[in-house]
Amino acid sequence: MESTAKSYRLATEYVMSRIGVELVEIEDWNCCGATSAHTLSELMGIALPARSLATAELKEPELDIVTGCASCYARLRLAMHKIRTDKAAKYLIENVIDMPYEARREVYNFLDVLSREDVTEAIKGKIKRKLEGLKVACYYGCLNVRPALITGAPDRENPQSMDAIIALTGAETVDWAFKTECCGAAHQNDAASVTRDLSWRILKNAQLSGAEVIVTACPMCNLNLEMRQDGYRKNTGRSSIPVFSVSELLAVAMGASARHIALDAHHVPAAKALAAALRRSEGGVAI
Amino acid sequence: MPVEKSFEPAIVAFCCNWCTYTGADLAGLNRMKYPENVHVIRVPCSGRVNPQFILRAFQKGCDGVMVCGCHPGDCHYSTGNYFTRRRFMIMKRLLEYNGIDPERFHARWISGSEAAKFRDTAAEVSEHVKKLGPNVKYREEFRITESAEAGT
Amino acid sequence: MSRIGVFVCHCGTNIASVVDPDKLIAAARELPGVAYAADYKYMCSEPGQQMIKDSISEHGLDRIVIASCSPRMHETTFRKMLKNTGINPYMLEIANIREQCSWVHVDKDRASEKAVNLMRMAVSKISKNEPLYAQTIPITKKALVIGGGIAGIQAALDIADAGHEVVLLERESSVGGKMAMLDKTFPTLDCSACISTPKMVDVGAHPNITLMTSCEVESVSGYIGNFEVGIKQKARYVNHDICTGCGLCETKCPVKVESEFNLGLSTRPAIYKLFPQAVPSKPIIDKENCRLLKGGKCGICAKLCPLGCVNYEDEDRTITDNFGAIVIATGYQLVDWPSMYGEYGGGRYKDILSGLQFERTVNAAGPTEGHIVRPSDGKEPETVVIVKCVGSRDPNKGKSYCSRACCMYAAKHAHQILEKLPGTRVFIFYIDVRTPGKGYEEFYDQTRMDGAVYVRGRVSKIYEEEGQLVCRGEDSLLGEQVSVKADMVILETAMEPSPGIAELTSLLGAARDVNNWVQEAHPKLRPAETQVGGVFLAGTCQGPKDIPDTVAQASAAAAKVIGLLNKSEMETSPMISAVERDKCSGCGVCVGICPYKAVTLLEIDDRHGAKRIKREVANVNSGLCQGCGACTSACRTGALDLLGFRNKQILEEVDALCL
Amino acid sequence: MSEKQEKMRQCAEKLLRDGEAGYVIGWGETRFDDRTTPIFVEDPAGAGAFVWNEYAINSLAKYLLDDKYPDKKIGLFTRGCESRAINRLLKDNQIKRENVYLIGVPCDGKKSDRCTLCRERNPILYDVLLWTPEDDPPPAAGRFDRVKDIEAMSPDERYVYWGETYDSCIRCYACRNVCPACNCRECYADMSKTGFQGKQHSRSDNQIFGVTRAFHVGDRCIECGECERVCPMNLPIMGQTQKILKDINELTGEYECGMDATSENYLGRFDLDDKDEFM
């Protein structure tokens, strides 16, 4: 969030401060192990996120936990679920992290928070300009919805929560088939071709379904979809497609300037698509 | 009261004809082994087991009592064992409240195919009851004297 | 004093090698009431039985204890044997010293000791036995068949041909069921309509069959031989007594709604026949969609009808009738795959058809007149993917069971596509190919020869791209991911019980299995009966099956019904609950506990001191009571007792063990 | 006090004079100042015998079973405890509602231990209410406090507790005779050949009686406390039926008997998802 997803962070902070939500960073948090740790050791894969959650429970016992990353969400949520349902696992984990953890508070992903009725209402009140006619493919990523037992997501194949949020900005969401397909995640490090194929497939279906831009809810997804576009263009002869985080679109609609949320930090030129949409709706307001 | 080392408890198991009795027969068919002290009384349904049978068994000198029937939902008579479940959830608590050791009375669901479960349950109950020694609670008095004598 | 005979069976060495028969005999002779004790190698054999019979007359025995194998094995054998002696068949107890003694114990002394205990328990119990006599109940010679699909049709025809009256009840406005929707039947490919419509016409015309369409079962009371069934005749709004089925009314109806029979692939008016060959061949009005019945202005059909059959005032009626036997033949429906398979688009893509929708498509009488075309654009497909086991064999998604008929109709669909559209590429994704049936494997082989490509693996995702359906999946034989761009996809979805089965079975008191299929009385030996006496099973209400199996089971159920109805009265088991009216205070706790509604409160005349009074007591219906005894344990006074398992008999067993 | 008493007498007199009731059951004076006795008044002129004071202790409802088939209605003064007993008898199909005329008399608590745990002073069921309902007092102790005390003991201690209790039992069956839930035509304990109940005066047979009685009435007990009041040996026997009630409360939630005449008894019905410990 500090480097490659800088614009995601800035935009999120912008949106949340506008609607009066205070985000508190968990003190001394650690990596959740993402998609790698649990393939090495199941216990490590749960203990890592459990440690961050236990710390949060200790320091901020009254606060729920929210994460903007699909992978973190899946791991944190699993740790919470495990602690609540498996006494033996709880005992083991508490021993490993050397901290008590009761999982009293919920773990949410960023979309859950944005979909809360009060939050949606607050956002509605802060929208200053519309991204009229911008065709958006909402990409949820696999781990924001899966596994269903852990996430409790109502629809794993065709979720709707982000579509509803994006609709607030005046943009038009397209019906497409790859909302929850895997982007390849950490395989970009060890098996780049796997990630490449997976990401390209997503980009292609979004474009064929009429999308002008893709919106994500995870820095990793964002990265994978964006970074592979040079090759994508050369290989498929298609044009590239800008990829935003959900916060960025909201921030822009709330009036944030490009500089405000570091829109220039994108690999694929991003500002242009938004500017076009803003022009359409407001007759030439610059971003 | 002194307890004989070789104390062999008397255990009675009320088994429904359609599930547990069949399961016990299957245990035989498969030549499974369990202690000799478990004696089955065949009843058509676990719902036929009147709680007063259990009291009588303890009074007459049984050291352990089992009531076994089909799993809930599998009753041959469709709903008999749902009543059994309620009845003995209450009865077991009442017996314990009156001082009967929890290990002396067991209710279990054992289906016609669960021969191994029948064997394991028989062995388990027998083992527990053996540890507890002869039952004196609720026993007719002259029988208490009798077994006390046998113990010395 | 009773004169008990004790007979110990060696069962070859099965018993005698562990349990010492001599010890049993010696112990038996010491027991009060035992007049004679003997052992033999095989008690159940002809000489063994003869030996018991001889001893009965020789020693004047009046009750018999046999220490042998499980009573579940030979109780009936020995009861039958006693029928021809002077002893009542219920003066018999069996000590199970094989399954529950010699086979499960090793230590010979202790096993023998236990065998003695078991024998003593049986001797004690039998001292309290009493002769029991079976009662007879009359039988109403009329059968009710619920469901007018091929199973119900077959069962009704068989019963009617045997000379008994049958009421065939169907929820829809026509009989025919799912078979009427099919195009051709595997493996012979004869046309489904050609073989089923004559049968439909037969049931419509049979003098012994009363056809009741647009009807549902509303209430059931009574018991085997004597059911009273309340049937709801839903309002048809067309007088079928005078309607000739000319069809004029259908032509001008302004309403167009999705046709149920064509599974949404075409439309129908609000006054309609289910399909052209419907039996009875007369229309009904669909009140949900009729403009006039919904409160609007119309009435065109009434004006058109030359005979004045249309009656918008028609109402639901309840008809009550009595039956001796009931056959459940309510069939199946296909699972609602869109709600289960989001990865297949969840119903968003028009060109994904269910197997049954494809049947309608390929059927010459269907919405496309048999042309295989895509619903989206009416074009013939060049590539078709068939996916099997959709909703079946998939406990995570749908049902864990195999839906049985899909392998064959998938092959049939492939064959039909290749036949009608030569050159089409057909891919069939499968888990296994199961073809257990006459000519089935050969048919599957032929389909592959025709050019269908079988890919072993599940389809993980179907999505639309550039006007085609991309089917992604695994070819588990290659170990690779594959992706097929198809123009049409056919999902061979699982069968599940038709809606309303839960309500119907609970009215009838019949059980259902974990998947909601109606439970047969025994999976192998009584496949066409339910546990409820007089209620039988036919076809797919019991589990997925194909047409030959359905018809076979229907005839089996019919044979059972005929067997029952051929008797003028029947014997019931005498081991049922009995009420001692003197003790009964009429509290009624037993009434709610009986699962068969066999116990009711009955008002009787009695005296209270010098006063003549009426008071209520429990009353057991011997036709309904199945002898579970649940009522007896709830009865505080012990006014209810179970014959054959009386309180005192069971307590004798308990006492004997503790002696 | 006397005003209420007067109302009762007037009501009874009118009922009898109008022929509405054949007789009225209430409380009457005895030779002792601190006792009343149930009386049955047929003559309108005798209605002056009814009293209402702090010694009107006996619950009257069970007397209805002595005259189950009356020619005329039976008038009955009905407080909370009587009305719950009547619901019990109605549910158990022992009396007919049209055979009784219930004169509702809200109770102010009487001088009896059984009234200290009372939670229903006002009649739930009546044909006429003679005066305004009383406030229910805060219970003196928790409903199941004493059951909890016994549960806290070890099995052996519990056996000794009940064993010693039943050692004192003289098997007079007064508890049964007064209990509205004990309404069998013939009690199992009076039968000689059932094998369910030994006749010896031994700890074993006494305890079997105690447990069996508890099980027979446990899910129907209205907690009126009459069984303990009439026990000549002062045995705490309602602790048995209350144990069952406590368990039912814990297994399926709020459960109280005699609050209406239609609810099915706990052991006379079931839920598919009842708690199950017998897996």
Description:
The complex is a heterotetramer of chains A (287), B (152), C (659) and D (279). Chain A folds into 2 domains: 20-110, no CATH class; 127-280, 3-Layer(aba) Sandwich (Rossmann fold). Chain A contains 15 helices and 6 strands. Chain A has helices at 6-18, 37-40, 42-59, 70-85, 87-97, 110-115, 117-126, 148-151, 161-167, 187-190, 192-208, 219-227, 229-236, 246-254, 271-282, and strands at residues 65-67, 107-109, 135-139, 172-173, 213-216, 243-245. In chain A, the strands form 2 sheets. In chain A, strands 4-3-5-6 form a 4-stranded parallel sheet, sandwiched between helices. Chain A starts with 5 loop residues before the first helix and ends in a 5-residue tail after the last helix. Chain B is an alpha/beta fold and 152 residues long. In chain B, helix 1 (20-29) links the parallel strand 1 (11-16) and strand 2. Chain B is globular and about 40 Å long. The mean pLDDT of chain C is 94. Classes of the chains: A alpha/beta (287), B alpha/beta (152), C alpha/beta (659), D alpha/beta (279). The B-C interface holds B 10, 12, 17, 21-22, 24-29, 31-34, 36-37, 39-45, 47-53, 56-57, 60-62, 76-80, 83, 87, 119, 143 and C 70-72, 96, 98-101, 103-107, 110-111, 113-114, 117-118, 121, 509, 511, 531, 575, 593, 595-596, 626-630, 632-634, 642, 645, 647, 650-651, 653-655, 657-658.
Key traits:
heterotetramer, B: 152 residues, alpha/beta, four-stranded parallel β-sheet, 5 helices, globular, disordered C terminus, D: 279 residues, 2 domains, five-stranded mixed β-sheet, 5 strands, 32% helix
Oligomer: heterotetramer
Q: How many individual helices of chain D?
A: 8
Helical content of chain C (DSSP H or I, runs of 4+): 25-40%
Largest sheet of chain D: 5 strands, mixed
What is the global morphology of chain C?
Answer: globular
CATH superfamily of the largest domain in chain C: FAD/NAD(P)-binding domain
- What is the C-alpha radius of gyration of chain C, as a whole number of Å? 32 Å
SSE topology sketch:
The complex is a heterotetramer of chains A (287), B (152), C (659) and D (279).
Chain A: H1 6-18, H2 37-40, H3 42-59, E1 65-67, H4 70-85, H5 87-97, E2 107-109, H6 110-115, H7 117-126, E3 135-139, H8 148-151, H9 161-167, E4 172-173, H10 187-190, H11 192-208, E5 213-216, H12 219-227, H13 229-236, E6 243-245, H14 246-254, H15 271-282
Helix pairs in contact in A: 1-14, 3-4, 3-5, 4-5
Chain C: E1 4-9, H1 21-30, E2 34-40, H2 46-59, E3 63-68, H3 71-83, E4 92-96, H4 98-102, H5 108-126, E5 135-138, E6 142-146, H6 150-161, E7 165-169, E8 184-185, E9 190-191, H7 192-205, E10 209-212, E11 215-223, E12 226-233, H8 248-251, E13 257-258, E14 267-268, E15 271-272, E16 284-285, H9 300-304, E17 317-323, E18 325-328, E19 332-334, H10 337-340, E20 352-354, H11 355-362, E21 383-390, H12 406-420, E22 425-430, H13 440-450, E23 453-456, E24 459-465, E25 468-475, E26 480-486, E27 488-493, E28 495-497, H14 501-508, E29 535-537, H15 547-565, E30 569-572, E31 577-579, H16 589-593, E32 599-608, E33 611-620, H17 630-634, E34 640-642, H18 647-658
Parallel strand pairs in C: 1-2, 1-3, 3-4, 6-7, 6-18, 7-10, 18-29, 20-27, 21-22, 21-27, 22-23
Antiparallel strand pairs in C: 5-30, 8-9, 11-12, 12-17, 13-14, 15-16, 19-28, 24-25, 25-26, 31-34, 32-33
Helix pairs in contact in C: 1-5, 5-18, 6-7, 6-15, 11-12, 12-13
Chain D: H1 2-17, E1 21-29, E2 36-41, E3 73-78, H2 80-91, E4 100-104, E5 128-129, H3 145-151, H4 155-167, H5 174-178, H6 203-217, H7 226-230, H8 238-252
Parallel strand pairs in D: 1-3, 3-4, 4-5
Antiparallel strand pairs in D: 1-2
